[in-house]
Amino acid sequence: QVQLVESGGGLVQPGGSLRLSCAASGFSISSYTMSWYRQAPGKERELVALIAPSGLTTNYADSVKGRFTISRDNAKNTVSLQMNSLKPEDTAVYYCRATRVYSYWGQGTQVTVSS
After folding, report:
1. Which of 47, 54, 90, 98 is 20 to 30 A from 108, alpha carbon to alpha carbon?
2. How many other β-carbons are positioned within 10 Å of the β-carbon of residue 79?
3. SS3 for the chain, per residue?
4. Measured between alpha carbons, how far is 81 from 72 in angstroms, rounded to an integer?
5. Backbone φ and ψ of 55, nearest 5°
6. What pLDDT, in 10s, does the model give residues 54-105?
7. d(C-alpha 62, C-alpha 110), whole Å
8. Considering Cα of 76, then 51, then 84, then 96, what sign does the dihedral take?
9. pLDDT digits (tens, 9 = 90+) for 23-38
């Protein structure tokens, strides 16, 4: 059974950090582009960051450049998102996505940035 399971979300104060993880099962992520999306209440889901299968190419939304870092470990079948200098506007449900011919989505993890 194909699954993506996100973890690491929570409540953090502005300026703080969180590290999200996405564990894949039922398939190997090594040939998939992996990405993180987020969806805030009342807003559309948006791309936050993506990483190529090799890990050599990454891309970020302008709003998170310099603060977030996406990484992957193909041997462990995981992808991570290190989030630093968090802002209240980063509050959202964060989703992991695996894309090749098909796309798989995780169930999401809530990130709340608030004092």
Report:
1. 54
2. 29
3. CCEEEEECCEEECCCCCEEEEEEEECCCHHHCEEEEEEECCCCCCEEEEEECCCCCCEEECCCCCCCEEEEEECCCCEEEEEECCCCHHHCEEEEEEEECCCEEECCCEEEEECC
4. 9
5. 85, -5
6. 999 999 999 999 999 999 999 999 999 999 999 999 999 999 999 998 899 9
7. 21
8. negative
9. 999 999 999 999 999 9
What does the mean pLDDT of the chain come to? 97
Q: Can you give the length of the chain in residues?
A: 115
Cα 2-46-115 angle, rounded to 5 deg: 105
